[in-house]
Amino acid sequence: MIEKLRNAFDEMIVYKDLKKSSFLSALGLPSFLRDWLLKRFANEAGVFDAEELTSFVHRFLPSKEEWTGIKSRIIIEREQVKLLAKISVDVDIKTGDASFSLPDFGLVSKETLIEDCVWQLCKDDLIAARETWGMVELGYRPPLGRSPQDKGKIKLVSFKNFCPYTIDLEYYKDARRDFTTEEWLDVILGAVDYNPAGYRNEEEKLTMLTRLLPFAEKNLNLIELAPKGTGKSYLFGRVSRFGWLASGGVMSRAKMFYDVARRQDGLVAGNDFVTLDEVQTITFPDENEMRGALKSFCENGWCNIGTHRVDGDAGVILCGNIKKEVMDQDGYGNMFEELPPVFHESALIERFHGFIKGWKIPRMTDDLKVAGWAMNSEYFSTILHQLRGDLSYRAIVDEIVEVPEGADTRDTEAIKRIATAYLKLLFPHVRTADDLDRRAVLPASCESNARYDTRTARHSRHRIQRKECARSPTAGDVRMASRKHCRECGEVLSKDEVGLTKKLLDMEAKEFFCFRCMAEYLEVEEEFLRAKVEEFKDEGCTLF
């Protein structure tokens, strides 16, 4: 598969060895920046010059503690200084003047300016996102007069976009055709720094990759509860430069949505996703106002704060730890009681589209760290960012998903939104519904997983409403197979046939197929289905 990866993405692969690269780990760099450096300083064999890389980091990637010294060089010594940094811009409505901020160094827009000549050269790159990475060159403009109101400012001399290449989205889509589905799962895992060989089965891989769905689909809201050490913070906080991770502390409505006093949009307006990590430790100053804003935004993609309307396409992700004794292997325990009280309202919970059962993701070990050639994280995350705006995938899902009469609207939307994200992530080469090969059972599995995760969330929401114990589906449901009949031919079913219907089509199925009728329905051979059953048994699936 490495040869396939080289042939398809030669310029976009790097050699990653997270088991041994303590040098890079010590730098504390996010994955997208680390891979950019590796690509810049590594040779064709993946070996990088540590001395040269260290020199570059010390010169262009200073720590926050070095900022005072840098300001001295700019202001007192009148030196022009280059930094590889995250930058955001602001345009004053009253004056039309442009300014910028460097959030990692605490430099705010009132202390800066962008002269018109620089703005005309760099504006396209600077306004492409709320915050963007790039090579920033800084200088100093002294006060123009002696008035106390006339202050000196740090000015932007030049800006070069961090992304050193042009993204060809159509090429990426077509390149996917060179890989089998199993190979593509491994490609994606490598792109986000994980070793595919460390996972025991396909279910673990898919559960892990479900975390990436908000990277590829707008306004997709997820909840994940998982034991400690499964890599939640790493994936949401270090892989993509288009998202935001908030871990613990205080989260106000002003920070999340809109600051009325400063007239400044919050996190949801400038990011692809906002992850509230360690959500049990986050404090919400006014739970009612936060709950109200969340309900509107998670439903519509906008909310009103006073007279200001906040629009954004960010997904909201809640990540929390769950105690071992609370885990329910079938996913139907009252798990949402683990969340802070602000989320203990069914009207809010039902606006989240899916639930990730994080206990199905193995705890992080060295065996799960990538060690070898893999896709550049920065390139991959940028691809997913661009796929968010591609509406063709939703059209395909609308065509192939059959909605039963009387289906709940929110459940239907959740299923379609999750299925669309899966399609972008796993089958980006699909252009029409006819391109989907029904012999590849995985697409059906993804849709089934969407239904299952959505209904898991819905069931737990009802638990919040009723505050009563509900029966969890167990292996006993499968043992009832002998009393179930095929929905097509009426034949008495085996437990394997019942289990296969749940596995491939719908975990909540009330009607089931025999092997023969399912083969006709999926347009595959009956022997193929029987082989899949044995494969699932070998993986330890409790449905069989």
Number of domains: 3
The outline comes out as: globular
CATH fold-level assignment of the largest domain: Rossmann fold
Largest sheet: 5 strands, mixed
Average pLDDT confidence is 83
The CATH architecture of the largest domain would be 3-Layer(aba) Sandwich
Oligomer: single chain
Classify the beta-strand content into a percent band. Answer: 15-25%
Number of strands: 16
Fourth-tier CATH superfamily name of the largest domain: P-loop containing nucleotide triphosphate hydrolases
- Structure annotation, total helices: 22
Helix proportion of residues, in percent? Answer: 25-40%
Task: Report how far apart the termini are.
Answer: 32 Å
Helix vs. strand class: alpha/beta
- Compute the CA-based radius of gyration: 25 Å
How are the strands ordered across the major sheet? 3-2-5-6-4
Low-confidence stretches: 441-445, 466-482
Tell me the name of the CATH class of the largest domain: Alpha Beta
Structure described in brief:
By secondary structure, the protein is an alpha/beta fold. It has helices at about 1-10, 20-25, 30-40, 50-60, 65-75, 115-125, 170-175, 180-190, 200-210, 215, 230-240, 255, 285-300, 345-350, 375-385, 390-400, 410-425, 440-465, 475-480, 495-505, 515-520, 525-540, and strands at about 15, 80-90, 100, 110-115, 130-140, 155-160, 220-225, 245-250, 260, 265, 275-285, 300-305, 310, 315-320, 355, 370-375.
